[in-house]
Structures
1.
Amino acid sequence: MKFPVLLPNIFNHPFTYESDLKLKTGDYVVVPFGKNKVSGVIWDDFEQDNKKKFKIKRILKKLEVPALKKDTIKFLNWFAQYNLIPKGLALKLTLLSNHAIEKVTDDKYKDFLTKIKDNLVELSLEQKQSLKMMNKNNDQFKVHVLQGTTGSGKTLVYFEALKNIINKGYQALILLPEIGLTTQFEQKFLEFFGFNPAVWHSGITKKKKEIIWSGVIKGEIKVVIGARSSLFLPFKNLKLIIVDEEHDQSYKQDEGIIYNARDMAVARASFENIPINLITAVPSIETFDNIKKKKYSVSKLRKRYQNASLPNYEIVNLKDTKLEKKSWLSKYIIEKTNIHLKKNDQVLFFLNRRGFSPHVLCDKCFKNYNCPNCSINLVYHKRKNILLCHYCGFKSSMDKKCTKEGNCNFIFNGPGVERILEEVKKHFPSKKIEIFSSDTMNKKDSSEKLKKIINNEIQILIGTQLISKGFHFPNLNCIIVVDIDLSLQGHDLRAAEKNLQLYHQLSGRAGRTGKPATVYFQTYEDNIKMISDITNDDPDIFLERELNIRKKNNLPPFERFISLIFTGVNDRALEKEATYFKNFIEGKIKAKILGPVSSPIFKIKGKFRVRLLIRGPKSLKLQNSISKLIQKYKFSKGIKLTVDVDPINFN
Ligand SMILES: [Zn+2]
Ligand SMILES: [Zn+2]
């Protein structure tokens, strides 16, 4: 008999093989492909319009693992179509490698043994009502949004919902945006449930991946906590998906296989006919739109857990209180910091800029130090004493021969967190101070550091946006935003939303255990409307207004955006190619094509980038017609096309 076998490679169609074995859709098999043996899956349909005359090869063997579910296959087919990704690459996300795993023995799963301990967590009335809504009609597809203010105990509500699912012997998946720092979350999980979840992200070992993969496919592992890629695990009995911090833009995978894990999670839930819960303090505009259209149900937690109050806000106008030269903190702020420290409050200085200074130049030859591979400034990192590119990782020493004479004499423009650290140290020499950024926290000792922060052994933190992500620091009662810069960059339609989310999440770190807390905004801005949006208890007012702006201008979610990004080493050829391609598809798709334009960051990693933007109706037909045209078009050598459906990043 003939079988269609999809392989985890760049092809968009299954290959035809023969076998006398009894095989069904979803079975894992090993087949010869070229000179290699690869694992694949019996797919649900043969290749369409296959006119090639190849000798049909035989399937080598069937793997002894449970078959991939038909619903999951349907989801992968749709996923490939929606994101313009070859089906083979969609399968690759589900398969662990080129070889599926057979050999894992059951005792390996005992670390994740599911025996729920009894716990006595008393939920508030609001929490109980939310839980009731989550549990209602949860034997079928539905999207529920749990919108709760920061520190309101959203996790407890969905843990209870999860308990319900696990007790029935089913599986559940919790997606988190920043998986590098899950220690605190795992701890919370263990305390509540009494067993360890399986944690899945790109950083875990291959061996661990194999154990989790096979535990998931056999239904032995009940709960997976994971980053984006965990969405593609071949669950046997998945009955609930949770997307925590659903508004977080790091759900968008920007490189390689480009997709939005939150949106794809909703799609998977729909194909598998199971419930999904989106958890957030402030919903994304897309989610808010779906709530308004009543596609998603919503429940709200307005009170903070154990009645802690939200922080107070104060704006410090830097036009009134002049800063001293090479200083970024006003006298007023230093006084306030002192008062908080005396009360034993932890203090956070927030500045979303890593390193010491974002802009370096020589005062003799006036050379600006830019990355040779990317069209952006190099950032000075004082701890390492290097210039670093935040895009490609290019490093260079500070030893620069000047074209005038001797070595360059550097001027550092503006501060990064390292520079703020120096200033804070001068004012508070006896305090323990730490930088909280991806440079200092994504390391092995980060859980040790987290412990110290929680125990208030570190009194002052200097943090980038990493610190805004879901942490619970019980003593943090004072946040100082060093320079709130709300300039709305013209090319980013989500700038206002991004700002609101960032500062809302950041403020939410303060005052979580009931002591009074204050967030100070130092700013040169006269327009404080944005700050009043951030500090408003009811984020729906902002969302409502923002949604109206999007509607008026026909921006997403009211229209579909698809970015086509051309990259190559020859900038002129690139412009030409983009124009040819535009002419080629113009009139053949039902959409507007804008561009070509150079990307705001024209060069990254040595490659130039030119973009087209397609604006069209929200229908899969648009993707299908673009996909067909791309296949027909002959691209010039050295030019690569990347497709980004529903783009978030316009760099
Ligand atoms: Zn670079
Ligand atoms: Zn110089």
2.
Amino acid sequence: MGLETLHTTCIMDCPDTCALEVSVEDGKVKAITGSRDYAVTNGFICDKVRRYPQRVYHPDRVLHPMRRTGTKGSHEYVRISWDEAIGEISKRFEGIRQEWGGEAILPYHYGGSNGLLSEGGLDALYFARLGASRLDKTICAVPTTEVALGMYGKMPGVPFESYPDARAIIIWGANPKASNIHLVPFLREAKRNGAFIAAVDPWNRFSDNEIDLHLPVMPGADLPLALAMIRLWHEAGDLDQAFLAEHADGTEPLLEQADLWTLDAAAAETRVPAEDIEALARAYADASPAVIRCGWGLERNRNGGQAAAAILAIPALMGKFGVLGGGYTMSNSGAVKLDTQGVYGHDDWQTRSINMTRLGEVLTGDLDPPIKGLFVYNCNPAVTVPDQNAVLRGLAREDLFTVVFEQVMTDTALYADIVLPATTFLEQHDLRVGYGNYVVGGIRPVIDPVGEAKPNDEVFALLARAMGCDDAPFEWDSETHLEKVVAGLTMEGRPADGEALSSGRLDVLRFPDGAIQFGTIMPRTRDGKIHLTPPELGPRPYHYLTPGDESAGEKSAGEESTGGAQYPLALISPANNKMVSSTLGEFNYPTLVVSVHPADAERRGIAEGQTVRVFNELGEVVCQAQVDERLREGVVSMPKGAWRKSSVNGKTSTALCPTHLNVVGGAACFNDARVEIAVVSAG
Ligand code: SF4
């Protein structure tokens, strides 16, 4: 067959949605690189996807359906045929339905490597027909999505290409060097153009010549930081009252809370010098265009929703919209709409909803009916869901019939009764909606499925037909499915380009006069207004809660912190440049490290590379210490999604993460974990 170069789109959960070129020789993937056809991808991609062929051909790749023969977690399986697997799953699910009802079955999934054809379509139709419990997908991006929806109707934001036009840029709770790398060249260009750039993050990822100011805010304290800046501007008469009168409501509850936060109170709570908070407020106020890149790191705590709302309110309060490069960037996926009901014809799934963050409790507690059947696809809850010990206890239940539909033998797949082999995005048709870039990406098979792997839509159709469902979508092949979904897509009102998408290329949404918030793009709320205090914020909007501590209540500005002595360090678990959530952890992140500030390390006698235990009341993780002065004092960090084999005791960061929820959207609060750390003594 020789060497050929084929186009497709990266499917990973990443804002960049890269246009890819894949070199294929004799039916095997040789290399993956970025296409130059799309200016933002610009010929380069991250190291993660460059190494993706290692996943495709990894020894742990699931090549055929398997049935468990040993105890759960033991990795003892026997090969079975697809017919046997589909027959057995159907029989077991039917038995559960007869005895316990359909709600005793739980589909468990996330969008780590899913496109529109793989999640939310045929899978949802199948589980709806089964009468299964629904999944409330709260593990990520819920508080930010909820507030962006309530405040602006999920108005699309400032595109990355416009950042060089900005004169001030705040990167708040995001690490573009790990999970949005195509923003970095635009930041550098903005810097060359003279922009002031600040980063708000407990961990400084930038060098001194890349940014002007770093505010190492304590995890969970972004809200007082934003409120103190708003108070400063309010006092100085800087708020754009004319803009607010014309375009916004709900300003008063926000200003009432902001007025409680003096610079000193915010400095004490954030542990950031008051003069730095003031410097950031002044630089932002004085610059136009000014843009805030609001990330997802700031939402992963019990104040996350309120903090995201306060941050997204800033451009409105300060009148920063209406110019190219001015406003905010959150998720831009609101520019693309899919008429799911029109495509699949289902909207009648009304069973109980289960919060995915509480999986451990759901599987081990008193639920009525209990979960007796679990179908996991495109996610790895054994390492990604809070309270890992409870999750593992639940997965180990012998009376739980678990199916895991996966590409490789993940930590979760080891607990499955039946394992089904899934195609990677290089072996299937799919569509990816960009949530950073304004694109929809066509995904097409560049190689044949490895082993007996099948794509999601085919497998859910097989399962549905086996239980007697005769809905038309279950008869579609993947090409037909792609055509139907493309026909249901609109990009800012125009139809999607089916020809580009079916050939594995991007359909790029272009704004002839630029994407300008309050210029070419307006809020999508029902009345077209900004709602600065949306109902999503709950009964106590913009009120601050003691970070990390579920039992502690509201905290007033200037009030002394109490408690925390037993577990004084805040644990964060951010994205890194080796894995996309847990994807690629099978080979790309072999040794778990906990990063710790030199002062915290010295206090505990910890040296670089030493084996340490990180612990709290929920569990313990034994791993290697990495002393890093870029991380702020009082905070330690372990990467999100590391596999169990990377740590000494088979436990990872989620073993230390609490299960309490954000009031906004019932979302996970990973960064509320509080821990202590100690050297593991030899012998
Ligand atoms: S993970 Fe992100 S940066 Fe890497 S190739 Fe995919 S879209 Fe591009």
3.
Amino acid sequence: MILKVEKIRKLFPIYEENPNIVYLDTAASSLKPSQMIDALNHYYQDLGVNIHRGVYKIAHEATDLYETAREKLARFINASTDEVIFTKGTTNSLNMVANHYLDILKPTDEILTSELEHHSSFLPWLNVSQKTQAKLNYIELDKYGKITIEAFKKALTPNTKVVVITAVSNVMGNKVPLKEIIRLAHEVGAHVVVDAAQAAPHFKLDVKELNCEYLAFSGHKMLGPTGIGILFMKSSLSQTFTPIEFGGEMINRVSKDNMTFKNSPYKFEAGAPNIAGAIGLGAAADLLTEIGLDKISEHVDSLYEYTIDKLKDVDGIRILNHDSDSGIITFNIDDIHPHDAASIFDKNNICVRAGHHCAQLILKWLGEESTLRASFYIYNDFSDCDKFVESVIEARDFFRKF
Ligand SMILES: Cc1ncc(COP(=O)(O)O)c(C=O)c1O
């Protein structure tokens, strides 16, 4: 184990209230640290005013904190601040991008995506495809459910205009070879939209090195608040990208028959934003940087390997994903519905996910209606892994009796 979990847990107030909780559902949402909660509280308790338009001290301080959060997030992904747009989260970011292409794509164009996509990465483009008649193509997955460069090359055509790809699948947990995919997509002139919701809490993202056009992630999966996230948009695209929402703070001039927009990111942040959320997300990014994404990744790997090693000797368990890079174990217990099994985990104060994980394409590929999923993070230790494995066995034995 790499991180000092006892020390880390002290940063998360939930462990004071519920010291025995075994939280294995970070892929859905992470636990929330005091550092982030304090940042939210500071805004609500000491400031609580709107930003950008105030001409008094507390409005200046709130504006300062909001823009400082943007700088932190820009550093977090190696972007410039005009490329970091605060949104409600990954879903909101990805829908913004897809909506833009409703006016651009033609029936002869192609959108290339994968069965690994979460619904919030896939459905906006299914809608675009239905409305524009642009064709949706899929990269064939290998036998482990992974995307290979060979398969990507086969699916890419001169008509591919947009590649929509997850950085890490929320069911399979594997890293996609993004850098090479983006390089190849650019060779045919396609834009690349990256869903980094599962990647941002685990891996250093460098948008300059990746060179993608768009990248999205959510605060709540990476120690931040709910209802806030990021859309990275390459600066060269922001001039021609149409805002989806119109309203306060996004315009320069308005007349009866015209409007001119501010530059990015303000052009895309109409109305009073989620100020506290942005400040909280900034604090979360600070904490992740302080702990170190490399260490987080190593820690998560060690928990994953320890658990897989124990599970592989348990009969009646089907592990559905292979060599996860992000501490995700997707599995089923023979002849037991995942929701029934989940009740045993819940009884033992173990939080795991059961369902289709908003990723029905990959569930269908796996041949499952629904699955169980455990996911590890910085506050988990080997004792969590042991309790989890014991509960898997207990669930199997309990339901075998019926
Ligand atoms: C890979 C992936 N993409 C997108 C999302 C959607 O994120 P949000 O609900 O925060 O918008 C999730 C959430 O589970 C996810 O795992």
